[in-house]
Amino acid sequence: MSLDTRRRLRFNKYAKAYSKAEEIATELSNGRKDALFLSGDERRIYEAAVEGLGKVGNPALDSVVREYVAAKEKLGDTSLVEAASFFKTHGGGAVKKATLAEIRKKLLEALEADKRSEYHIRDITRHTKRFVEFFSGSITEITTSELNEWLRGLPGGGRNRDNHRDSIHNFFNFAKSEGYLPKSLPAASEETKRVNEAGTDNEVFTVEEAHSLLQGAQDWMVPTLAIKLFSGMRSEEVHRMDWAAVRFDQDAIILSKAITKTKQRRMVPLLPNLKLWLLPYKGSTGRIAERWVSAKTMCRAWTDRAENVNVVYKKNAMRNSYISYRLADIKNIAQVALESGNSPGIIQRDYLELVTETDAKRWFSLVPGGGLPE
């Protein structure tokens, strides 16, 4: 019998009253909740609680108590009213609900719609995929400490960790701009730590290794290999460019905004040795790397070529090699920065004095059919 239906029972015979009393006593001894009676202050407190819950949709009292206990465990001495007021003042009331995967989908759609560079979208896609697969729950529950712990556990060196950190920070900024995080509060990603380590020097190919890669390579592979080794272009740029970009009469390769990572037109010198490597293909049309469906598959072909000639393939080493040898040769940081689409600061920090001027002269003396430069 519940509190709301509590009433005095009357019987015209003692036996009936006694039987009912035994029934109620049995229910009480068995712990039946709806047979529980409250009295005094307990009854008053219970009725006040039920009346108060009626103002917010009549949630179950036990559910409210559990939620209160969980909140107080997190808030400590701070009251729920203070926490709610702070949350609402700082934009919490407008926070939208979505899973991490849903936010990621919207982010990638926005990057495509904004026509962000292929490189940027590629990195954001890869880094956020790993992030979403690791974390679960709401983005509002992820802490800076948890993000730092995840970043420290990533494979690779400091640069890989910093790249992931930057992508995740973009993810959180997007979530904030779209209302999935309070706009006036710092996101958990903002105080994550960058490594900023000195790191190791960029790897380059030696003159001997480049000679092995080029001499005897298949005709369909030579143009992309030569361009990568002797122009410093990025793999994605090589994969997208047409033969029309190669201006044999002007000793230049003209890259349009649609091709470059920075979305800025760039002119790359068609150096004498590179020109000799490409002259047999003069008059060709279409994409230079039309054999491959993606830059990734093109790079895999280069990796296979290196393995076939017993050269250890080093990631980014072809671009690193051009920038390093070119800088040692002409000693002009600003010009090399323009040619490679990098900033002068990065050129000076990462490529200065990696190779000698003598080796640079040998590098740009590698020509078709020639032996190893002295």
3D architecture notes:
This protein is mainly alpha-helical and 374 residues long. The protein has three domains: 3-94, no CATH class; 100-191, Tyrosine recombinase, N-terminal domain (DNA polymerase, domain 1); 207-363, hpI Integrase, Chain A (Orthogonal Bundle), CATH 1.10.443. 53% of the residues lie in helices and 3% in strands. It contains 17 helices and three strands. The protein has a three-stranded antiparallel sheet with strand order 1-2-3. It is elongated.
First-residue to last-residue Cα separation:
103 Å
CATH class of the largest domain: Mainly Alpha
Question: Taking Cα atoms only, what radius of gyration do you get, to the nearest Å?
Answer: 35 Å
Q: Give the topology string: H per helix, E per strand.
A: HHHHHHHHHHHEEEHHHHHH
Q: So what's the overall shape?
A: elongated
Biggest sheet strand line-up: 1-2-3
CATH topology name of the largest domain, in short, is hpI Integrase, Chain A
Provide mean pLDDT, rounded. 84
Going by CATH, the homologous superfamily of the largest domain would be Intergrase catalytic core
| Count of individual domains | 3
Helix content: 40-55%
Write the topology of this structure.
Elements: H1 14-29, H2 40-53, H3 61-75, H4 80-89, H5 100-113, H6 118-134, H7 144-152, H8 158-177, H9 207-214, H10 222-231, H11 235-240, E1 246-247, E2 252-255, E3 266-269, H12 272-278, H13 295-308, H14 317-330, H15 333-340, H16 344-351, H17 357-363
Antiparallel strand pairs: 1-2, 2-3
